[in-house]
Amino acid sequence: MVISPILCVCISVFSNNTLKLEKNVETLSNHLEDLVTVDESSGFKNIKAYINDAEVYKHIAKRYKTCLALIIFEPRFKKDIERMVGKQRMHGYVMLMVNAIQKSLRNEDEVYILDKENYIFGILLLTNFESKDVIVSRMKEEIDRLDAQKGRSERNFSLDIKVGAAKLDDDSMTALELIEKTKSEIQYDV
To answer: pTM for the complete prediction?
Structure first.
């Protein structure tokens, strides 16, 4: 007779503590998601890191009277290629392309994954805006080299990127506005 009430009290305490732990785990998971600035699958900085870094770069550009530019790139024909090869292989091709592009950049230039679903990447640069043509040219050369190495004939499609670039016009422009401005430039890359 005594065992039954004691057992009920123990189970009740155990259940309450388990519920508290589950709530704590959920809260910690939410906090972790808010703090993460690196994409888990690719290792590149994400949009949160881009927004934080863009503010810092904006102040540096103002202080040293230089230009802050954003270059955005994405795979050309990404939806068609993804339908042909599948999402997993497309992700592999995109990572090959981004790693090849990263080789053509300076060590201090970071690649940001701005839209994971649509494979849109960005690079923040402190440079004069006219030099972006040289950077874009090196990026496209690196992709052409990669395309030749990885056997274009085996794939039935070629690896290529669309590129857009824009500079920060004034201090009131936000990091997200700079992305939108740069995305509008992509449509002119033919």
So the answer is: 0.79
